[in-house]
Amino acid sequence: MNSERATQTVLITGATDGLGKAAALLLAERGYRVFAAGRSVEKRARLDALAKEKKLPLETLEMDVRADDSVQKGVASILQKAGAIDVLINNAGFVYVGAVEDLSLEDWRRQFETNFFGVIRVTQAVLPHMRERRKGRILMMSSVSGFVTPPTQGAYSASKHAVEALSNALRYELYPFGIHAILIQPGYIVTNIQNTAMNLAQTYQEKFKNGPYAKIYASYLGSASSTRAKSRTTPEDCARIILEAIEAPNPKARYGVTSLATFAKWGKRLLSDSAADRMIRRRYGITREAEQSH
Description:
CATH architecture: 3-Layer(aba) Sandwich
Shape: globular
Largest sheet: 7 strands, parallel
């Protein structure tokens, strides 16, 4: 890596755990100056200690992507210390698992406040400085659920569909300024976000065990457990794809990480809606009640 690359500054949201943490560590090891944002005091302290132990150019900062003042304060602090933000990685997010009918409007608002409005909030705070310098990269952590929506994933998928649309718009709008908007589509990688999702699904399954979607919750948990057992891709694998997207002279619009992401992307393009629907219904054991009685 040349010296110019080595001095670039990176802001990563949701960077104290999972994919964000893996990216923060890899980029710091490669010489980038990394600001790892997160809400948890304990997780920030552990990451700071690890960075100090390894002598990495990484420091954490408090940032709640749901709050305007927190984002503005965090971005201002980075600009004061580093003078610029060359790369923004919008990674903060979480998963709500629940049938559309079962989730409250407040659940939907919370899902979008972090996964979508949080992305807009941080991006809008950083963009004026990137435009002024006529360069920068904005990476959006999307998902396979950003273009394929399984049952019980309506809220999460809707938020990631929105992130995909946002990134598409930014890609055109920022082209004149030399700024790249790039989507990262990990697929299923075992992190705490999946643990939380499965715990939430189990909660809803118990809460609505006599409800109309009980079988779908059970199918989701079975499918998630099977996928989890087969998953071999690590957060570090995802971090290497993120590094590739940052350093590519002409980055692609989208980078898939897992084989699932690649398969789903091509399947979405090649299969008709009816064929894709049949595949998903078969995977989750979804049949009409009249069919179940035979």
